[in-house]
Description:
The complex is a heterodimer.
Chain A: H1 16-55, H2 58-62, H3 76-106, H4 111-125, H5 128-143, H6 148-173, H7 176-184, H8 189-200, H9 202-217, H10 221-224, H11 235-244, H12 249-257, H13 264-272, H14 277-313
Helix pairs in contact in A: 1-14, 3-4, 3-6, 3-9, 3-13, 4-6, 5-6, 6-9, 7-8, 9-14, 11-12, 13-14
Chain B: H1 15-23, H2 28-33, E1 36-47, E2 50-61, E3 65-69, H3 76-83, E4 93-101, E5 104-105, H4 113-119, E6 120-123, H5 134-144, H6 150-163, H7 167-170, H8 183-195, E7 201-205, H9 213-226, E8 231-235, H10 239-245, E9 248-254, E10 260-267, H11 268-273, H12 278-284
Parallel strand pairs in B: 3-8, 3-9, 6-7, 7-8
Antiparallel strand pairs in B: 1-2, 1-4, 4-5, 9-10
Helix pairs in contact in B: 5-6, 5-8, 6-8, 8-9
Amino acid sequence: MTLESPHGHIQARRGYARRKASSTVMLILTGLTTTLALIPLFWIIGYVVYQGGKYIDWSFFTQLPRPPGVAGGGVLNAIEGTVLLVILSSIFAIPPGVLAAFYAAYYPNTPLGIAVRFSTDVLSGVPSIIIGLFLYAVVVKVQGHFSALAGGMALAILMLPVIIRTTEEMLKLVPPALREASLALGAPEWKTSLSVVLPAAANGLITGFLLGLARASGETAPLLFTALGNEYFDFAAQVRSGLASGQNPFAILAGILGQPVDSLPLTLWKYAQQPYPERTHQAWAAALVLMALVLSTNIAARLWIVFRQRRMKG
Amino acid sequence: MNITPTLSQPFVLPRASARSIEDAVETEAERAIRPVKLDIRNLSVFYGKFRAIADINISIPAHQVTAIIGPSGCGKSTLLRAINRMTDLTPGSHAEGEILLDGENILASGIDVVQIRQRVGMVFQRPNPFPKSIYDNVAYGPRLYGIHRRTELDEIVEHSLQRSALWDEVKEKLNQSGMALSGGQQQRLCIARALAVEPAVILMDEPASALDPIATLKIEDLMQHLKEEYTIVIVTHNMQQAARVSDYTAFLMIDDERAGRLVEFGTTNRIFTRPEKKQTEDYVTGRFG
């Protein structure tokens, strides 16, 4: 077989060895840099698992903290607080975030649509401590005390840009033909958005929510001025004592939301700078639990998406 | 309201004589007796300042297949989309003139778009089933109009799928995703979805252009059955298809201002064999376009 072209202008063999060599070099280079980029990830995971794993036991998940300098105890308060804050911030951030994203996706060139996207960008650049300070001024100061509610709001503001942005991108990926098909059947816009566009974008949206949650659940700074921290926070005890004193469920809930709560990053931050070795050890363990929490939500979501896609393909 | 006098009596020609009438050049008298389903009068559609189609006049007869043909960009799809007000979805668009559906101007300001779209269904160029089960795809429309009883929905779903010639292929797997079907099946599912809201007119925007020849043939076959119950308007690029499936043909072209204008409208047979205009003849014989 000849590699010469009919007119002899193209000589496929010319410089072939050089091209092949540079291709190999580039392949090795990209492989190396990829490995380099992955090293910090696995290093961090490995080191946290190694350090935290040494000090983790069952009571770490089930007990409240002991006084400083006393061995034992756990971070039940922080785990419960993290879950509570994540739930609160999702409630505050996801519905308005999704609605704003619909507006930005379908009315991109209206003044309000442009404003939504611009302010989302600005908001995502605001340092998280300033968001904490803001909530301190408008909620904590006004209420007169730190609270889970203020903490949830601070995290919600932090999540909002992530949720709006990812939702908007996912909505834009839904083929316009689907929307048209629904509208052509006489469906109103809101019905089309709700029952055709939203389910079609569901997988992407859930990924977006989880990114937002992961971001929020790892934040410390906005909680310093809002949720503050609470070494005595115990959900079950709260509910028990509330029921014992004959309070209705709403009053119990209000009591829980109205008091300061702890969170894992907050605990980690506080414990890591204390001079007691038990506290430092527990800081490592808290780091491991936080990491595992974020990682497992991510993995669970991805598995769920795979499962759903399989089912959709029939 | 301007109600066409022939509406009360649907006028169906016996098969044998249908041919001979089509063969004749349409006279004014014949035009007058044919029941008109859609009367398009001086229709212009604007996108912002740009006029996409200008002064279109077509009387689309009931229970016939009417094809809209013409070169790319001549406004075929715009014309089609104006008939169920899908043009409303394009920001900055507006329409002038009248489209009378059974004598009622659907472009009038007080008209409910939802009602128009129930009476005028649409099938798109690419099959676009919802990412739902086959059943839910077809039941989507009826549910919009408040039908929720399971037995009633079952009946509508079966009936619609039978009319779109898909029932036998999917009756065992109604709960599977509509996306899992082949392209041709998906398009017939989309037709069933449009039929489920019991429209009077079905608009088809190049319904077979994304399908293979066998699937195309099935869709074309289907149209011949469907026209007994519905009025069909189809946009097509493919002149052989227009000649095969349609009873009437409208030929559109771009004028000097890049607006689409009607060149000629008549029975398909006449348009393809004895066109009155030179432009039509050039186009249907493949000399340009």
